[in-house]
Amino acid sequence: MTNAFAETPIEYLKGVGPARAELLKSELKIFTFGELLTFFPFRYLDRSKYYRIADITADSSYIQLKAKMVRIQTIGAQRQQRLVATVRDESGEMDLIWFQGIKWVSEMLTAQQEYVVFGKPTLFNGRWNISHPELEILSAEPVPLNEIIRPVYNSTEKLKSKGLDSRGMAKLIKGLILNDKFFLTENLTHGILQTLRLMNRQEAFLNIHFPRSPELLKKAQTRLKFEELFFIQLRLARQRSLRLKKHEGHRFLKVGDYLNQFYHHHLTFELTNAQKRVIKEIRADLGSGNQMNRLLQGDVGSGKTLVALMTMLIALDNNYQSCLMAPTEILANQHFSTITKMLAGLNVTVQLLTGSTKPAVRREILEQLSQGNVQILIGTHALLEEKVQFKHLGFVVIDEQHRFGVAQRAKLWDKNIITPHVLVMTATPIPRTLAMTLYGDLDTSVIDEMPPGRKAIVTRHVYEKDQAGVFNFILTKIREGRQIYIVFPLIQESETLDLKNLIDGYQHIVTAFPPPDFAVGMVHGKMKQQEKDAEMKRFLSNETQILVATTVIEVGVDVPNASVMLIENAERFGLSQLHQLRGRVGRGGDQSYCILMSRYELSAEARKRISTMVRTSDGFEIAETDLQLRGPGDLQGTQQSGILDLRIADIVKDEKILKYARNVASEIILHDPSLSKKENDILAQHLIQMDRNQQNWGLIS
Ligand code: ADP
Ligand code: MG
Which of 304, 337, 386, 690 has the fewest CB atoms within 10 Å around its CB? Predict the structure, then answer.
């Protein structure tokens, strides 16, 4: 079902010569007619509405004005040169400015001519201006009704230099759509179109670019958003169904001595209801004969590791080995020591394997591992090496998932003929919509309840001017024997600047808490792993009372005696980062505190982030707010996956459509898992087409 029109190389389009073709390819990855058609407008402008210059405010995004050109001047010399054209409407005056293409632009402009001006205003020296606006001579004829909604396309400086600004792009696309051969194959079944009353594909493309009415635009958007989300969901549903069919799983039917001993004699507390529920879910997977592939979400300290440990014991009861992979050496060490402690007296062989394991020890571990004598292996990436061979690996735990690439996960799969059961643990809660899209293939469990007796962390927002008070508070806590984290942001303008920011902060703190009464440590991303580890160890053993750090301490470190987290320039951190940082305290029995220090002037978003932190400690609520504030593109772990490279849909705003798409896709796969029924052929073909276009998809398991 190839579509000759859509696959025509872009060079063949009228108006696209070799130079423009090159630019379209390099700047926008547009190689074919079809790809140009999926270059959707990013917004629309109502051509019947004009702004008045006097009404422009800081909130005005792209605007359209009707104004007369009153003055055209070239200002400045040589490199500083710019072209300034002043326009006026009945309400006031503003400037249009060009820094490039001055010669040809000035030849094009006519004084006293009425123009339609389009662009994004900025304020400079108290005067509004638009740099590099789009201009159109005001036509005497009214805009035809079916052209009132005008598409606005993104462009780049390079494209603009070849005449491909928003209007230039519109012209190209119009050329395509008005072409007699314009034809797009439908890719949704008749059944779906009928039931959901969706616009057909060809109509949708026409109306997304050149809407004939607001209603038709809406229908076109719904159709295309559905299409985009539906095929993602269809693929995930098919993958999941194939996995369940194909990957036979070890059957862990027995609950034996290891688990019983542990549960009845070693566990000193009751499991929370959430933990009990999750263990039930896991046990159902383990007994099903299919391979488990489960994502376990739960806030820091909610008891995920314990659940993983109990699952390992079930594996042991069935004579299988387990491994746990952590993203850093510190975390692997921590897991090793807590797990060894919890299993003391149970006669289970647990070993630790990391990059710094000595060769002789390593050789011994590998030997014992291949003979099946090491029952639980804990480690870092080192576990992925070829030489690490298990006798019968039955269960794999991956902690802090987003630090590992998908490819690495797959590597662990390869270690056995029958794929081991996999539990991926993450403490960064993933909003439901995102989880549906990113991990649609994984089953999900959630621990949404904290163990009892945990004291809620007191979170306060203070301004920099209150620093003296904050330092006093810290002093009291140190005198009580507690330890303190102080975190500085990465500013990211330059690495040297960041480091300077941190070191200035450090010195300031050393001055306020001088030796010999106090010891202040520092860790940052530029340090060698060994130095970092050494510094962390000093803090862990209470040799240093204050640890000054960047977000390198974000993940997993456990120092129960640290009870205050002070975050400097809190306005610069993202919500999920703040949440992770706060999770570093509150791990011991003492009341803990998180102090968010910020400048006085805050953007609305920063204020919202900080107030959310002060209001709630619910990781899911925080993750949802974060997603709403930032959109999915910036969330951790999403960029490299490429999954959220959506062209038109937005998983936050289009949650309803996403749910529809997911339901329809699951329903189809339920009745036709391999999409081999005739009526679904159209869908299967489109998935093949997508595979060809996006080879990356194969990496997502
Ligand atoms: P996570 O891995 O989710 O961060 P852990 O499993 O490390 O959480 O648990 C954090 C702490 O809480 C550990 O010291 C653990 O022993 C303890 N813990 C876990 N579950 C419970 C429970 N049900 N009741 C009391 N304490 C618990
Ligand atoms: Mg943990």
Answer: 386
